[in-house]
Amino acid sequence: MNDVQKLAGAVAGLGEELSYATAQNAVLLCAVGALVQTHPAPKAFVAAFRRGWLLLGSQHSNDAFGSQASDAWADTLAVLEQACPIELGIRPPDVAEKPWGQ
User: Fold this and answer.
1) Nearest Cα to Cα of residue 34 among 43, 45, 23
2) Residue 49 contacts by C-beta under 8 Å, 6 or more apart in sequence?
3) 42 and 87 in contact (C-beta within 8 Å)?
4) What does the pLDDT profile of the chain (102 residues) look like in tens digits?
5) Is 35 within 8 Å of 84 (Cβ atoms)?
6) Closest by CA position to 45, among listed 97, 98, 93, 99
7) CA-CA distances (angstroms) from residue 53 to 13, 40, 42?
8) In the chain, N or C: fewer CB atoms in 10 Å?
9) In degrees to the nearest 10, what's the CA dihedral of 77, 19, 11, 59?
10) 8 A C-beta contact, residue 45 and residue 36
């Protein structure tokens, strides 16, 4: 097997791993959305989420991660914003999605 064939095999393997991880993330995002919708104390959830978000620092707005990472942050936050019965208060109101049921 020559170097090009080895490289092609490695790239194909990475594509399969990415597809697998993407599918796992989609399932987990659905599960988290359901947990957020049914959380018995939405205000406590939002407060805990905000604390965790602040611990992440500014990675969510860091251009060094590129547009794909920024899109992923925004898309994931949109799902959480829509799932939560009250506002998360992470993104500005004109950018954030409306809470579930509103």
Assistant:
1) 45
2) 80, 88, 90
3) no
4) 799 899 999 999 999 999 999 999 999 999 999 999 999 999 999 999 999 988 887 655 555 566 777 888 889 999 999 999 999 998 888 989 999 877
5) no
6) 99
7) 33, 21, 16
8) N
9) 10
10) yes
